[in-house]
Automatic annotation (TrEMBL):
The active site is at Y118 (o-(5'-phospho-dna)-tyrosine intermediate). SMART domains: TOP4c. It holds the Pfam family DNA_gyraseA_C. InterPro entries: GyrA, GyrA/parC_rep, Gyrase/topoIV_suA_C, Topo_IIA-like_dom_sf, Topo_IIA_A/C_ab, Topo_IIA_A_a_sf, Topo_IIA_dom_A, Type_II_DNA_Topoisomerases. It catalyses: ATP-dependent breakage, passage and rejoining of double-stranded DNA. GO terms for cellular component: chromosome; cytoplasm; DNA topoisomerase type II (double strand cut, ATP-hydrolyzing) complex. Belongs to the type II topoisomerase GyrA/ParC subunit family. One of its GO terms (biological process) is DNA-templated DNA replication. HAMAP family: GyrA. This is DNA gyrase subunit A.
Amino acid sequence: MAQILPVEITEEVKQSFINYAMSVIVDRALPDVRDGLKPVQRRILFGAYQEGVLPNRKHVKSAKIVGEVMGKFHPHGDAAIYDALARMAQDWNLRYPLMDGQGNFGSLDGDPPAAQRYTEARLSPLGAEMLADIDKDTVDFRPNYDGSLKEPEVLPAGLPNLLVNGASGIAVGMATSLPPHNLAEVVDALVAMIDNPGITLEEVMRHLPGPDFPTGGKLSRKGIKEAYATGRGSLRVRAKVRIEEKGQRPMLVVTEIPYQVNKAGLIAQIAGLVKAKKLEEIAALRDESDRQGLRIAIELKRGANPQVVLNQLYKNTALQTTFTVNLLAIVHGEPRVLSLLELMRHYLDHRKEVVRRRSLFELKKAEERAHVLEGLLIALDRIDEVIALIRASEDAAQARAGLMSQFGLTEVQAQAILDMRLQRLVALEREKLLEEYRGLMEEIARLRAILEDERRLWGVVKEELLRLKEKYQDPRRTLITEFEESFSKEDLIEDEPMVITLTAQGFLKRTPLESYRAQGRGGMGAQAGRAGEEDEAVRVFVAQMHDDLLVFTNRGWVYRVKVYDLPELGRQARGVHVRALLPLAEDEEVAALRSVRGLDKEGYLVFATERGLVKRTALSEYKNLGSAGLIAIKLLEEDRLVDVDLAEEDGEVVLATREGQAIRFPLSEVRATGRDSQGVTGIRFKREGDRVVSLVVLSPEEVKEDPDLLAVSTKGFGKRTPLSEYPLQGRGGMGVITYAVSPRVGSLAALLKVGAASEGADLLVLSKRGLAIRTPVKEIPRYSRATAGVRVMNLAEGDEVASAFVVKEA
């Protein structure tokens, strides 16, 4: 009668789940550290080997292999077995496929393999290396699921499979993810470990610098060492992309994609971003892959920056992925996270044991054969006596006993003599037996030496690894390099020129320079902003998107903001108030703007104020400048900052006033002072109420070129005058006439420098009512200093020029 025992349900569920989890971990999902195979993979390879489906034999139906494996070793679904078989034949999944498939085994686009009845397979040469010497007692066998057959617990693994092919799998509460590597590099690292058992990770990485994925791509060097040292980490992998040109359009061509990325899914992902208008620079997308290799063509629109688009693709698509490293494997029946050195050591120890057991097996066979040969040679030396004894014996048992007693032979030797064919009696056969015996004795001596000397044993392991490398090595596919692990905002924005516009009430905006089409001089211009009833435009200049915009205020402070952080608005928009971008005080207003490309270089900032003061401060004093601001200059009451510019040592300065006076003096006459200083007198005024309107800073190289100074009046007139017409004076004088001011042409609005060769440069002029005109500089003629020039911009009644800027040729 069955006995019913009460059981705590929580304990029963706990124990049952533990049993299930261990079954999944050990017998299904995780690879053995020695051969790098999961049970189903090991059974497929062994089943194919037993069926004789070898690399030198013809392919057989995959269904036949699956059936044999399922019936003898793996009593699970045939779909799971076939999926594992197909994966071992896919060269985009395994760096070194273990099965050689014939037929449709799927594709990089994620297409599934054809049904197993249609495809054929056999062991690949490297798959056969995994089973080499399995019939020489090199590994332990255990009963199969029903006890009718034996299956190997592990394969001899002549190929370091776990290292070269990696592995992936999800168990219960744990997962493994081992990256593949290049065979030649792995062998070199293993040989180095044999030669130096105490080898360090740094020394190993000289031979094995990092993973080598079957699909190639580019791998970031960052993170590799940490992953190898700890067994855990993440690696950045990118596609290989080159920039080509089709007609006048740039084109990105993807030739390799990251490991385990679905090509069709990647293309659909890019197309989705284009459709959602997140990548508007892409004009066409085509998959041009063929038998020659992978090729995805991404055609860009005319004028697009291919590097910026590529960075956006890296950030938003699977053109850049993260490969998670988790070096988890089964060691002595338990799952363990291992370092790279531990993985290598476990494999080498396994190979050492395989070579030792193989040597023992071969030694035993050689000794047994030598023993038989010794008996045969004794019999041949006394053949007449042997024949007489056999003829006189009543049966085989009596003959065997007689041979053993008369000649001192063992039963095995006696039986071999009885089984000997008569042709062995000829002299030639005796020589063959002697030659075979000598060869066996040499082999026995070699095998005993291997077994008695561990160094020789390791020498065999090393020799076989080097032979494997020589036979199967191939070039590295994945390029290990340095690249940014993450993208800054700047990486994703094209560094294009932008027109920065500021109004008197502090409204800022940026507009693409291409929005301002060049016109002939004397035009009315185009609307560049919509000012309020009591607002007017006061400043315009051009800066690159990646520039830092320095915002100087009436309190003498300076703030820093990226040009790309300004709102991008159309020509007619008013802009956004600067207080929405920077933490200005209530009574603080923008006094001047300047764009720079970084503050970590040598040089100076030169300041000019309305009252004629000039100041020079080293750029390094502003290197910690951020959006919170720093003191920039100490301003006197009723004085106002006019402009700020970058300067080099030994340069020159030109200050120009509203009443048309200008002074040119060496920068060396302005002593460099700290941020919290007011500067020194640069120019004195001839007339009461005059003020400085422009600052021009010239480098020593520019002075040598004798550039033009371009004057623009408030009524829209302009002219160019060579710098050489301005005498070099001492600081603090009244200067010379630079512009003939009058009621008709107005006062001086701006004095700008243009290169002696001004071809391609444009003058951008902004009126107080927000109209802007862009005119080629070469259309503005040269005149002497005391002249008014020609009309540059045709202004409406009551409007006047607020600002001007020279747009240099790109």
